[in-house]
Amino acid sequence: MTAITPRDLPAPIGLLAELTHRCPLGCPYCSNPIELDARAGELDTATWQRVFGEAAALGILHVHLSGGEPLTRRDLADLVAHCAHVGLYTNLITSGVGLTRPVMTRLAEAGLDHVQLSIQDSEATSADHIAGYQGAFARKREAAALVQEAGLPLTVNAVIHRANVARAGAMVALAITLGARRVEIAHTQYYGWGLRNRSALMPSRDEAKRAIAEIERLKVLHAGTIVIDHVAPDYHARYPKACMGGWARRSLNVTPSGRVLPCHAAETIPGLEFWSVATHALSTIWADSPAFQAYRGTDWMQEPCRSCARKEIDWGGCRCQALALAGDAAATDPVCMLSPNHAVVAAIAEAEGVQPVAEGPIDYVYRRMPARSGASSASD
Amino acid sequence: MISLALDSKPRLPRGVRLKHDAVRNEWTLLAPERVLKADLVAVEILKRCTGDATITAIVDDLASAFKADRTRIESDVQTFLADLAAKRMIDL
């Protein structure tokens, strides 16, 4: 394959808009960066609206309004209304904390298309411990009911890790009870805070395998009732995931302060130059940003990817994971059994994927804003 | 495959909509985390899924509009809608 030029560059489909990094929850598996953007640096309403207009013109179809917790943005309904105005499909990705009836009504009237609600576990005590927020579980039940009442489709998403891996099936059952048409069961991906907490999150290989088998069984059992999208755990796989459907091929991510990334973890790769919506049009960034060009297509690949028949299936896997585990962002994702560094992954899965001997709640490094940034301001 | 009652009235639920994508010059069916390309046959079926018409009426209408074999159309419509129902992208 020759180098991709902007002329034959496919248009992106999805935009992940991280409206804020502020979040009431502290989930230890969060893939946001350790260095969170402070409120003071967040893009204002007009800038986000311009970005959404540019996104629609560029060919984006889906906008994922995410964070942090997007409900902490008081202009959320205005942003949704603008997306609807320019023809974008809006997906609100939320913890549910902060979703009141008036807020839900305003969002529905603004034209919101879909709500994706996170749950941390099927049991309240464990769920609240994982979220680092007392009462979160109960509020999520209320949020799901409000989404139903507003007539919007609901997806429930659950991230699987050591503390809840035994209840993967129970979380699917909870999603059905909550009225979801779709549930995403995703084993933890170790980026940002998730990487920081990896040894507290990694389930054993046996636990992971049991959960995978159960979810696959439920997929068939519940066909026509709920759609189950299942992201299997990468550290136990044979081939890597086609991360982002290939670097800079399908989607882009805008951070709270306006940096545009090919994926939400891309800032973990040193030396990449990210352009901002403050200085460049989105179409220019998509076509020419050095960070997007760095691993686009297949020309950057090393062996064993370069000559691999799967190179346009999994696109070399994940660049951030290659950096984290092999020390080189251009290496084959070490999750791949063909990677010369694959033994590193197996060793981590063995060493960290052990059940804690002690009973009781697991200690996490909760995702929090740095205290000095003043990010969780009194006006929230 | 889910079997559909011919007297059910298919309707796109909120959160699932047909959109003409001007950038790519094609029709798409947008749904949560899904983008399906809709060919011309799909577009004609989907435009009739308003919640007012039964599957039988939709098939009759298509057969008459396109002067096509009714049996074949009924089979196409059934297959297409059953697939969408399995994806929870249509209400019956």
Low-confidence stretches of chain B: none
Total beta strand runs of chain B: 3
Shape of chain A: globular
* Low-confidence spans of chain A: 1-6, 373-380
Number of helices of chain A: 14
Gyration radius from CA atoms of chain B, angstroms: 13 Å
Pattern of helices and strands of chain B: EEEHHH
**Strand order, sheet with most strands of chain A:** 7-6-5-4-3-2-1-8-9
Structural class of chain B: alpha+beta
Main CATH class of chain B: Mainly Alpha
- Termini separation of chain B: 15 Å
Show the largest interface.
Answer: A-B, 25 and 19 residues
Q: What's the overall average pLDDT of chain B, rounded? A: 93
Radius of gyration of chain A: 20 Å
Short structural description:
Chain A: Residues 9-229 form the Radical SAM core domain. With 380 residues, chain A is α/β, with parallel strands linked by helices. In chain A, 33% of the residues lie in helices and 12% in strands.
Task: Describe this protein's structure.
The complex is a heterodimer of chains A (380) and B (92). Chain A has 380 residues and is an alpha/beta fold. Chain A contains 14 helices and nine strands. Chain A has helices at 45-58, 76-85, 101-110, 124-131, 136-149, 168-177, 192-196, 198-201, 205-221, 282-288, 290-294, 311-314, 319-326, 342-352, and strands at 14-18, 62-66, 89-94, 114-119, 154-160, 182-187, 227-231, 251-254, 260-261. Chain A has a nine-stranded mixed sheet, covered by helices on one side. The radius of gyration of chain A is 20 Å and the shape is globular. Chain B has 92 residues and is an alpha+beta fold. Chain B is built from three helices and three strands; from the N terminus they run βββααα. Classes of the chains: A alpha/beta (380), B alpha+beta (92). The A-B interface holds A 11, 13, 57-59, 61-62, 87, 89, 91, 113-114, 116, 151-153, 155, 181-182, 184, 223-224, 226-227, 229 and B 2, 13-17, 19, 21, 23-24, 28, 30, 32-33, 35, 85-88.
